[in-house]
Amino acid sequence: MDPKALIARRVAQEIEPNTLVNLGIGIPTLVSDYLDEDMGVFFQAENGAVGMGHRPPEGMSDRHLTDAGGRFVSFVPGASTIDSAFSFGLIRGGHLDLTVLGALQVDEAGHLANWTIPGQYTPGMGGAMDLVTGAKKVIVAMQHRAKGEAKILRECTLPLTSQRRVDLIVTELGVFKPEDDGLHLIERAPNVTLEMILAMTEARLIHAADVPEMHVGC
Amino acid sequence: MHLAISLHDAVDLIPDGASVMLSGFMGVGVPDGIVHALAEAGKKDLTLISNDTARDTSGPGPLFAAHCVKKLICSHMGLNTIVQAQYASGELEVELVPQGTLVERIRAAGVGLGGILTPTGVGTLVAEGKQIIEVDGKEYLLELPLSADFALIAARSCDYVGNLSYMLTATNFNPIMALAGRTVICEPEEIVPVGVIPPDAVKTPGVLVDHVIRSTT
Questions:
Q1: A200 lies in some domain
Q2: Domain annotation covers residue A213
Q3: In terms of CB atoms within 10 Å, which of A62, A122, A140, B167 comes out highest?
Q4: Total structural domains in chain A?
Q5: Which residue ranges traverse the bilayer (chain B) (predicted)?
Q6: Distance (Å, rounded) from C-alpha A73 to C-alpha A29?
Q7: Between the CA atoms of B80, A127, B201 and A54, what dihedral angle is there, to the nearest 10 degrees?
Q8: Average pLDDT, stretch B98-109?
Q9: Kind and range of the H or E run holding B174
Q10: Which residues of A are less than 8 Å from B94 in CB distance?
Q11: What is the pLDDT of residues B134-179, one digit of tens each?
């Protein structure tokens, strides 16, 4: 399976019915493709939407209706629009059940870095700092490595997005859960061995002798 | 000056060196006519306050291409290659502000608050040099109000007294910035008689709007 699709399918399993969810740019955006539309999930976008739907039919896009990446979207029945202050009130105020974000790095303490590579590329934090600080649950969805370099580290070397510990990290190799005693490997992807994961991860992992396989339903 | 002014007169109001809030999110809900006119007029040394810098040719993009901006206060600038180049070369001074903090700082200025306390940014580079205030055992950053000489905003509809309505996700920063600019200039998509926008649909009362870009049709 395509690594990004695998990650998105696994993250989709974490989404509870009747919740408010924010999906970041990139892999997180794919998560909604793997959810039943009758689950009652409303997708929030930082730019001021509650109830974002899929891309509109070809030729039917409205330039006033976009997601936080500026792409044309549609609305689901029951959607609403809000201004930016209200949007971040939802995020910081504890009303957002889950955010799924990409990352440049995560570490054993569950810290996330995703807004700047000093001296190289600084896109800025956008809404990420508020999302990680304010959402009830934070899931990092990312490819396991970038350009051959480990992204799950003992300690982030890039500036942090928040001091808050993320709740779960999902990559195409496995599922990782930061806890008080360190970073736990709780699932491995189909056809991926424990040895492969250990070889491609800089962080020290706590794991059972036999790590269960991820079930992605396909 | 009369509420309705020409695009040319609006541009003349804004001097070099002014601080300018520009609404919009990734190019949506941006007063594009004013942006292009300011760029063509060759304004210099502006301080621009905007959520993001969109892409090279969208949203505030033309202002960077025309070298109008000296200082940028925003939350995201990752998709504009001109901004990235000007930041790397040192031409552009940048203050990055988390998006929720940015909008609340603007709102604070607009509603007469001396600042806001937010947990966002505690323990990160954003906290550097800022006062930390503890409330009920939790740490917050004191973030100060952010106002500007001008707020340039976009609306769906504007009636004859300046009441504004917005559309879908083009609302974003518009109603907040309308509170915080010392002079508020709106570029609506249409101008309609009073009453066409029902009172409950007015998101920005006309009393906040100083000038409206005149209809050219």
A1: yes
A2: no
A3: A140
A4: 1
A5: none
A6: 12
A7: 80
A8: 98
A9: helix B174-180
A10: 122
A11: 999 999 999 999 999 999 999 999 999 999 999 999 999 999 999 9
Report if residue A81 sits inside a domain: yes
Range of the domain at A49: 3-206
Separation between Cα atoms, residue B21 and residue B181, nearest integer Å = 7
**Percent of chain A surpassing pLDDT 70:** 100
Residue of B165, B192, B214, B172 whose CA lies nearest to B25:
B172
What's the N-to-C CA distance of chain B in angstroms? 21
A118 contact B CB<8A: no
**Separation CA A166–CA A101 (nearest Å):** 10
Nearest Cα of chain B lies from the Cα of A209 at a distance, in angstroms, of 36
The domains located in chain B, with CATH, are 4-114+144-213 (3.40.1080.10)
Q: Which residues contact A80 (CB under 8 A, 6 or more apart)?
A: A49, A50, A51
CATH code for the domain of A128: 3.40.1080.10
Alpha carbon distances (Å) from A15 to A55, A147, A153, B3: 21, 30, 26, 50
Give tens-digit pLDDT for A160-205.
Answer: 999 999 999 999 999 999 999 999 999 999 999 999 999 999 999 9
Helix (H) or strand (E) holding B59: none
Prediction ipTM score: 0.95
Of A103 and A36, more confident: A103
Give CA–CA dist A79/A42, Å, rounded: 8
What average pLDDT does chain B have? 97
> In this complex, which of A82, A123, A129 lies closest to B126 when CB atoms are compared?
A129
Min Cα distance B214 → chain A (Å) is 21
Residue type, A109: A
pTM: 0.96
Task: Please report the pLDDT score of residue B216 as a whole number.
Answer: 74
